[in-house]
Specification:
Strand content: 5-15%
Distance between the termini: 12 Å
Structural class: alpha+beta
Strand order of the largest sheet: 2-1-3-4
Largest sheet: 4 strands, mixed
Number of domains: 1
Number of helices: 4
CATH superfamily: Glutaredoxin
Number of strands: 4
Radius of gyration: 14 Å
Helix content: 25-40%
Length: about 120
């Protein structure tokens, strides 16, 4: 089983989610998305398969979110994606992909819905 986590090791929720994944006995592919951000196509794919809006993936607690005035609803989805690609810290985390599904795992326990039993 292949599991991928878009991870920020400084984030407690991301660390907890990673621990829950490892508890199943599977070592996931860990992508530190601040170092290796997803491509535009991959980001759009993740948003699509999660069934969320582009705006739902923005990390609203980041100072940069306020500085860029991203709460302004005149920004298009394409513009918001461009901001996330230019500033990956704006991508909410962790995102986990499994054969069962893909989720933004906040809170971390949401990952249990898409993991195999340990």
């Amino acid at each position: 089983m292949t599991i991928t986590i878009y991870h920020n090791p400084k984030c407690g929720t991301s660390r907890n989610t990673l621990a829950l994944i490892r508890n199943t006995g599977v070592e996931p592919d860990v992508i530190e998305y601040l170092i290796t951000p997803p491509s535009r196509d991959k980001l759009l794919e993740l948003i699509s398969v999660m069934g969320i809006r582009v705006r739902d993936l923005l990390r609203k607690k980041e100072t940069l979110y306020e500085e860029l005035k991203l709460d302004d609803h005149t920004w298009t989805d394409d513009e918001l994606i461009s901001f996330m690609l230019a500033h990956p810290i704006l991508i909410n985390r962790p995102i986990v992909e499994t054969p069962t599904g893909t989720k933004l795992c906040r809170p971390s326990e949401l990952v249990l819905d898409i993991l195999p039993l340990p």
